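To the structural biology subgroup,

Please find below the input and predicted structure for DUF2442 domain-containing protein, which we are adding to the shared reference set this quarter. The sequence is reproduced verbatim from the submission form. If anyone notices a discrepancy with their own records, reply to this email rather than editing the shared folder directly, so we keep one authoritative version.
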Amino acid sequence: MAELSDAAIDAALERGRIARANEPRAAAARYGSAADRVIVDLENGCTFAFPPHLAQGLEAASQDQLAAVEIFGQGYGLHWEALDVDLSLPDLMAGLFGTKAWMARRAG
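Predicted structure (tokenized):
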């Protein structure tokens, strides 16, 4: 196995810094029952929200189940342990609320 050079490591670290500065990452997530939205506060100060009935695995979830949302993957994902649901924040923000097959079935 080849060793990584200091330059390669430095370049990888710089790519990570750029990604953290420019890609959406969750700082906090919660379920807002009044608006029936999963609300994600991003590290850049913006907020993203979506109705849970649009997302694969959350369609029939109770308010208590939705409230148990956790952040994972260094802020790139949302997780609901009891529902066994993981959703990608960048995908959600791009309007991808599930797998291609699931979204095709929902579209009819």
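Summary notes: The chain has a mean pLDDT of 91. Residues 24-107 form a domain with the NE0471 N-terminal domain-like fold (CATH 3.30.2020.40).

Regards,
Lab coordination
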